[in-house]
Design goal:
about 725 residues, alpha+beta, Penicillin binding protein transpeptidase fold, Beta-lactamase, 2 domains, five-stranded mixed beta sheet, five-stranded antiparallel beta sheet, about 15% strand, multifunctional enzyme
């Protein structure tokens, strides 16, 4: 009985081989009898246009400005990275030579789609062992098998084999060998949802396919027919056995030298998980960029698979890899320190950090929260929170511009005295409740800051509230409309409430808006639009490239209330706003905010290598804490508070100086660690005159010696 079964098995194998050879013979030598159309009809072949027009889904990537991967968007179960002809040397790259040796040594030497010698050898081995131990499929045949439907691939019928043979022969006629081999390299599966050698190389070794060594290339070559079994991640011992077999095969076929063989066999298999890590960086920034791609470019990255996400879109962002990392660290460490300090009374706080490049407007870092997987809300862009004293520079620069426009002497702009007198306003609209009430602004420390007046320089540095309110006041407790206009000129798009508490940051503004506004001071009065996308390209070439950094001139329209005749009535007037401020006013604000760091509420930053300017901000009842600032190179902002619309207090004395400033300090200390100090700007004679510091200011500074550098003046 056993002998009969053996003969039946042999007859079956022989008939299969003869049928295949007969089919190929008919196809090649009787074309006048059996045309392509007839084969298509008889075997039910798919239209060959499916192969000619084939464009597989590809993974899309987001990169930093330096080319490091930030995020990967892949089709579920089909993670692809297509190689092009210029990405790899198809004749000499280790991955190409190793796969050719293992799968189809005579691929470039043969004119037929099949390898008759390989088929004969495989048939002999199969008959000898009474089971299939060796295949004879060529690269064109394997490629066709990959491109057929899953139902057809699963079949082991003679009909399916004939389909593969005919389609493979057609491939040889229609495409060059390089085109076929490249398509094969892009289509062969390697497990873990990776399709193609490029995707596999990135996953297992965090390298491009063309960068693999012979040892690494042989790992992939050994996986082709059983990727799950030979996975170097799950089964390293099996992967090593498959690699060694592939290397020996490559040596036997003359594709690698003996020295290459020995060194590759001695090499340990070291996989890397760095690529997987790199595909999940800067999630808030990626989410923001995806929104822009959708709204401005019509490129959709949503949850449906029928979109642009898997067309191989490459998006280069403006993010600086190091600065982004330091920003993420700063946010995490600041929240850890906050929770450690306040213990059980600490709220479920959130934090954000943003940095913009001076001179271009490029967003170099965007951290919208501590854990995107837990809370998918970008607090750097979407959260509009009260800013407290961080809004005061808008008030003061409005006054500077007003005085300069009126032709008043610009000498000593910062050191003019401003009253610290008490002010009590009735019929002031509460920005939270919308109700009309009395409002009496107070200073953070009434015992310390009780003089009748202060210089502007000192009032800004120490964040004294009442001088800022007096500066912004018009009429009886009204907000000077020029403050709202100035906010618009600085690029703040959120509406500023026209009641006096707005002078102390009572209106909601996003971190992105306020950072952009501060960048006008560091850019000598020029407003540049903040942007995060510098280049977009697809499989067919470049779609968009940022090529200029022009100043923004038109800041839109604003409606303000002005007094009518005899100062008795008000009327609404809509005006066009031109962006930016004068260079002198910007320079004055740089000096004023340098004072905050030198002797004000941000003195802990004065030890940094780079000159830094900035302003702390704390809202009423310690609900929001801010630090806004800039160096000669970047403008940045840090915020800490409750998530989204959460408005519980952070805790007693949780000020901008104690909670938010440490984020910026961590970022600056690390980013500038190996940098030389750079001055802010070259000052003109007129600018220097505007900064004259009299003896009265020196006495003010002297009186503060020994005071707490973190004391800050919140809106109260």
């Amino acid at each position: 009985m056993k002998r009969i079964l053996r003969w039946i098995w042999r007859l079956f194998l022989i008939s299969t081989v003869l049928s295949a050879l007969g089919g190929v013979f008919l196809y090649f030598f009787w074309p006048w009898v059996f045309s392509w159309q007839i084969w298509t009809h008889v075997l039910g072949l798919p239209s060959f246009s499916k192969f000619e027009e084939y464009k597989p889904y590809q993974t899309s990537y987001f990169f930093t400005r330096g080319g490091e991967i930030l995020s990967c968007v892949a089709k579920p179960e089909e993670w692809r990275d297509a190689l092009s002809g210029g990405d790899i040397d198809l004749k000499n790259a280790p991955i190409a030579r190793t796969i050719l040796a293992v799968e189809d040594r005579r691929f470039y030497e043969r004119d037929l789609a099949i390898d008759l010698r390989a088929i004969a050898r495989a048939a002999y081995e199969d008959v000898k062992e009474l089971k299939i131990v060796e295949g004879g499929s060529t690269i064109p045949q394997q490629l066709v098998k990959q491109l057929l439907s899953s139902e057809e691939r699963g079949s082991r019928s003679v009909r399916r084999k004939l389909k593969e043979l005919v389609l493979a022969s057609r491939l040889i006629q229609k495409f060059s060998k390089d085109e076929i081999f490249l398509l094969y390299l892009n289509e062969v599966p390697f497990g873990h949802q990776r399709i193609g050698v490029e995707a596999a190389s990135r996953l297992y070794f965090n390298k491009r396919a063309g960068e693999l060594s012979y040892a690494e290339a042989a790992v992939l070559a050994g996986m082709i027919h059983a990727p799950a079994r030979f996975s170097p991640i799950k089964h390293p011992d099996m992967a090593k056995a498959g690699r060694d077999s592939a290397l020996k095969k490559a040596f036997t076929e003359g594709m690698i030298s003996e020295s290459d063989l020995n060194s590759a066999l001695a090499e340990e298999i070291v996989t890397s998980n760095e690529f997987s890590k790199s595909c999940s960086r800067a999630p808030h920034a990626i989410d923001y960029a995806r929104e822009i791609l959708k709204n401005e470019f019509g490129i959709y990255f949503d949850d449906e698979w029928q979109n642009d996400a898997w067309r191989g879109i490459k998006v280069r962002l403006t993010l600086d890899s190091e600065l982004q990392t330091f920003g993420e660290e700063g946010v995490r460490l600041a929240l850890e320190a906050y929770r450690a300090k306040y213990g059980e009374s600490a709220i479920d706080a959130e934090a954000a950090f943003l940095a913009i490049e001076n001179g271009t407007g490029a967003i170099l870092a965007m951290v919208g929260g501590n854990d995107f997987s837990r809370r998918k809300f970008n607090s750097a862009v979407r959260a509009k929170r009260q800013t407290g004293s961080a809004f005061k520079p808008v008030v003061y620069v409005s006054k500077f511009e007003q005085e300069l426009a009126e032709g008043k002497p610009y000498d000593n702009l910062l050191d003019q005295q401003i009253t610290n007198a008490y002010i009590s306003c009735k019929n002031v609209k509460d920005p939270k409740t919308g109700q009309w009430t009395y409002w009496t602004p107070r200073n953070f420390d009434e015992r310390k800051f009780n003089a009748g007046s202060y210089t502007r320089r000192f009032a800004i540095a120490q964040s004294i509230n009442r001088p800022a309110v007096w500066t912004a006041q018009v009429g009886k407790c009204g907000l000077d409309p020029r403050v709202r206009i100035m906010a618009k000129k600085l690029g703040i798009e959120s509406d500023i409430d026209d009641h006096l508490p707005s002078a102390l940051g009572a209106s909601g503004i996003s971190l992105l808006e306020l950072t952009r506004a501060y960048s006008v001071f560091s850019n000598k009065g020029i407003l540049r639009p903040a942007y995060i996308i510098s280049e977009v390209s697809g499989p067919d070439g470049k779609i968009y490239e940022k090529s200029s950094w022009e100043a923004k001139r038109d800041c839109g329209l604003i409606t303000i209330k002005v007094r009518g005749a005899q100062n008795k009535q008000t009327k609404a007037v809509t005006i066009a706003v031109e962006c930016g401020i004068s260079e002198i006013a910007a320079g004055v604000m740089v000096e004023a905010l340098r004072g905050v760091v030198k002797f004000g509420t941000a003195r802990s930053l004065d030890s940094l290598k780079q000159p830094t300017a900035g302003k702390t901000g704390t809202t009423e009842n310690y609900i929001d804490a801010w630090f806004m600032g800039f160096t000669p190179h970047i403008t940045f902002g840090a915020w800490v508070g409750g998530p989204e619309s959460y408005e519980k207090p952070l805790g007693d004395r949780a000020t901008g100086g104690s909670v938010a400033l440490p984020i910026a300090k961590h970022v600056l200390a690390n980013w500038y660690k190996d940098s030389e100090s750079t001055p802010f700007q070259e000052e003109s004679e007129e600018y220097m005159k505007s900064l004259v510091s009299p003896k009265s200011f020196e006495k003010e500074v002297e009186s503060l010696k020994g005071s707490d550098p973190d004391v800050e003046a919140p809106q109260e």
